[in-house]
């Protein structure tokens, strides 16, 4: 059971985890032991509330397929148990991040003083550049 928030949690049957061989170097052990975890979570067929599903499907994340399946590959750690915990934590982070409401941006105008400072700096820069020209007798 994966706890997302106080009211939302996922059952074990909703999350598919398979052990695979990790990529990269690691000596003899990497070729024999399946320590990496391949996690798959189907958003559409889960018991998540409808608002969670809508927001997750609206996210443009490369880990979420067009069919609504989240795929996470965890191979950072040497043991299978640590990789399982890492994959579950990353899944929970994705779901929590989908529920964060972005603060609405309000357009603001620059103040009169900031406009004057900008124009003064612009004039100073123009004066400096004009002094770089050819010296005439």
From TrEMBL:
Keywords in alphabetical order: Hydrolase
The Prokaryotic-type class I peptide chain release factors domain, residue ranges: 21-37
Pfam families documented for this protein: RF-1
GO terms, molecular function: peptidyl-tRNA hydrolase activity; ribosome binding; translation release factor activity
Annotated region (Disordered), positions in chain: 105-137
GO BP term, example: rescue of stalled ribosome
Entry's family note: Belongs to the prokaryotic/mitochondrial release factor family.
NCBIfam families registered for this protein in UniProt: PRK09256.1
Protein name as catalogued: Peptidyl-tRNA hydrolase
Organism: Vibrio panuliri
């Amino acid at each position: 059971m994966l706890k997302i928030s106080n009211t939302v949690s996922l059952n074990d049957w909703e999350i598919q985890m398979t052990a695979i061989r990790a990529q990269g170097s690691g000596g003899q052990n990497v070729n024999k032991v399946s320590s990496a975890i391949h996690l798959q979570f189907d958003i559409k067929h889960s018991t998540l509330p409808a608002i969670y599903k809508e927001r997750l499907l609206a996210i443009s994340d490369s880990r979420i397929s067009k069919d609504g399946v989240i795929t996470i590959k965890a191979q950072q750690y040497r043991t299978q148990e640590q990789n399982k915990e890492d994959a579950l934590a990353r899944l929970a982070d994705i779901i929590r991040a989908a529920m964060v409401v972005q603060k609405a941006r309000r357009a603001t105008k620059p103040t009169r003083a900031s406009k004057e400072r900008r124009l003064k700096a612009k004039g100073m820069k123009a004066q400096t550049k004009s002094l770089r020209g050819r010296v005439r007798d």
